[in-house]
Amino acid sequence: MKIFVINCGSSSLKYQLINMENEEVEAKGLVERIGIEGSVLKHQPKNGDKVVIEADMPTHKEALKNVIDALMHEKYGVIKDMKEINAVGHRVVHAGEKFACSVVITEEVINALKECIDLAPLHNPPNIIGIEACQQLMPGVPMVGVFDTAFHQTMPKEAYIYALPYELYEKYGVRRYGFHGTSHKYVSQRAAAMLGKNIEDLKIVTCHLGNGASVAAVKHGKSIDTSMGFTPLEGLAMGTRCGDLDPAIVKFVAEKEGLDLNGVDKLLNKQSGVLGVSGVSSDFRDIEEAAEKGNERAELALKIFAYRVRKYIGAYAAAMGGIDAIVFTAGLGENSDVMRASICEGLEFLGVEVDPAKNNVRGKEVDISKDGSKVRVLLIPTNEELMIARDTKELVERL
To answer: What span, in angstroms and rounded, lies between the C-alpha atoms of 331 and 166?
Structure first.
């Protein structure tokens, strides 16, 4: 079975074609600048050189058509006929409370996702456009929606209800949803496999650390809490997002700076986080380099980030009544040994001991804890596309 995995942004489209017999990626690529002058497709077949295709792609439909043409191309294609694609798995950011797991896409599902647009106005519309474009170009091919929020639907009510008038939850769905769910699910399952234990016997804290970052408490295979909330703004300090803060700051800063609601939203989402503190960049590599050269604000930004992650790990150990493993994943989590060490420093009381030699690694699946460490510290590169493909395969096989 071959699964076509699609992740549509407002002007982009990422894809992978995965052969589920061996879970190998046959081809992958990215379309950029959809609907903008200079549209380009970068296509990478498994056994070939990257191909760059420039073409006019005013909508996602044209983008998908170019991707399919590339997959079937005589020279750099990997399939001979579209019939070789058995199913399509779509990444969808927000499903609200409507879906607690991946689902086969129907008209009812699409309508439900449209009802969630208010909750994810930047992400759900392009996700829906991608689904509808695929349905037009690939009629009859089963399609599955895999949701970033679904994994966190197992949170208990005391974890996801805010202490606001309850009517706001009932009327508008104001609650904690959490994000990066597909990644947290994948790495927690891999952690159990690496430890040779049943996930239902484990208490794991998963740390998805990138420009957007979140931590999740995964108890017995289920998410019971996560740091992102109603939106991805809550939780950790991130590349440009502020994370947790006193809500009264919003009114105070708006009045002092003469900002309207859109101005405050831009400040909190685009101008804050480690960018706002460091004044250097939202890229942790740039900040680490500046800190090494003695930039005090860059050093402070890194300390703030590590402190917030460490604090959430401690909180989630308390929420789960113990902890068996900590998992680091995503761009920063997978590649920065300095940040991993900084986060774990001070967690020795929980039984966390990192081996400096083992931690000197990037992007590999490895246990970096000391021999005999009570809590295992794992580095696991995330693979959301494979998780989407697995969910798609499982559902399609039931049809």
So the answer is: 37
Indicate the fold that domain 2-147 takes in CATH: Nucleotidyltransferase; domain 5 (3.30.420)
Say whether pTM exceeds 0.85: yes
- Give domain limits for the chain: 2-147, 197-384
CB 206 within 8 A of CB 223: no
Strand order in the sheet with 222-226: 222-226, 213-219, 203-209, 325-329, 376-379, 366-367
Taking the C-alpha atoms of residue 185 and residue 96, their distance in angstroms, rounded to an integer, is 18
Q: How many Cβ atoms sit within 10 Å of the Cβ of residue 215? A: 27
Partners of residue 216 on adjacent β-strands: 206, 226
Which range is least confidently modeled, 116-120, 305-309, 382-386?
Answer: 116-120
Residue 210 assigned as binding residue: yes
> Does the annotation mark 81 as catalytic?
no
Q: Which CATH class is domain 197-384?
A: alpha beta
* Residue 7 among known ligand-binding residues: yes
Helix (H, G, I), strand (E, B) or coil at 49: coil
